[in-house]
Amino acid sequence: MTAQTANEIVLDKVSVRFSGHVAVECLSFRVIRGEIVALVGRTGAGKSTVMNLIMGTLAPHRGTVRVSGLDPYFQFKELRGKLAVSFQTDRLLPWRTTAENCALGLEILGHPKSKSVERARHWLSRVKMADAADKYPHELSGGMRQRASLARALAVDPKIILLDESFSQLDHVTSQTLRREFSELVRSLGKTCIFVTHRIDDAIEMADTILVVGTPANLVLTTHPTEKHRTDASLAAELHTAIAVAMGDIPDNAIPDDSKV
Amino acid sequence: MESSAKGGIHWDAVASREVMVAALRHDAFATAVVIALIVIAMQVASYFTPDYIMPPPAKVLAALWQTLTHDYFSVFVTLARLFAAVAFSMLLGTALGVLMGTVDWLRPFLRSAVVIDSGIPALSWILLAVFWFKNSEIRIFFILVVILVPFYSLNVYDGIRALSKEWLEMFESFRPSRMQLLRMLILPHIVPYILLTTKSVIGYATRMVVFAELIAAAVGIGARMGLAQAVFKIDEVLAWTVLLVVLNVMLQLVITLVERRLLRWRAEAAVR
After folding, report:
1. Got the DSSP string for A180-210?
2. Less Cβ around it within 10 Å: N or C end of chain B?
3. Would the ipTM clear 0.90, i.e. be above it?
């Protein structure tokens, strides 16, 4: 595998402005194939703008964005089926059953409806939602709806999955369970995943690499949590503090020197 | 009764069904009382006035029976005209509404045309149609379509404007074609708006078709009512009127059934 193909997502000196307001400032990072990356920052830091750049719904004012070697904005259609997104809210269509919702992406890709629904049922069973396949969204709980939303993203078998604060609206226990199950699934499938979160614990638990962005979005810290950080509470706390400082949640001078990473 | 939330809106399907049945029973009772009062008032009025002013209810009932057994063709013609015009207006109005909602450069032109159309009184269209078209079927069809299309197009346009940006963003993340966007997202989303418009306009459309028939046709309920009025058969006029009310209620019922079938995915909400 060449270095270029191993880089699934590349942002190079990207800047975005909205009517004078700077949302992203000279942001550069690379995500290699099969990596799970957390994009962490405070609310309003421009994390969702970065996601929109990768999704291809927004063009940068400066710099370049490449997804699988393609410009996601100008080569929008060419990334069809290669990239899927799960959002903060489930965004299930109320007139479709859960299985039909999960089949939506497949239908858009041109698969026949019956086959799409069949494949959607398989993915629903992978996220433990087989029993709810024929229910309408209003009959599901918040956690079930979010599972369905994740199954919808996975069903198209994308190379890249983007999660935009997908677990943030769930209660702590549901969110934790879902995060764990999802990261296991994504790792086993070898997908590349970027997830946006403002919860540092989520990032430490799930990610291979954590990219901490300031406000406006520019890279202020890159860190690679290991299994030790996930199992050792004191190491996790240290990393948590370092990320919080980088995000600007805790002033640097409030941390004793021996606690700094 | 236990509900899933205290006060305000609760979403319990069983509870909402019970509330609905109770409300329907209450409505049926109130309707029966109102009908009884009208019949009593007609009976009392008939004692003091000649038959060409207010015939007794029994005579109206006899005329109604006569109408139903001997003049059902007029009912059929009126219903056929109504159905054809409403169906065509629904298609045309929806197409215009979709264009207004999705083609930016076309929107101001279409919206202006629709707003101007909706401002023209129905009577003007009826009088103009009499001059413009020889064929009575085309006249009535034209009158109904120009009156009904703005309702559909403006409501569908509003529906598209109300389309959730979040759904659109989710849908676009799969990179659909414009046709897929229309077929899988926009059209299912506007179905409730189309049904609501049909429910709102059906009574108005029934009145308009009868009015148009009165002026511009020789067959149909409106034409028959005009004829009855010309020969002072007020019992027949009232019989047709009763029939129109019943027809309107039945049409509303049909639309409600269609709505329940098409919108079965919606959660029933009951407000306490």
Report:
1. HHHHHHHHHHT-EEEEEES-HHHHHHH-SEE
2. N
3. no
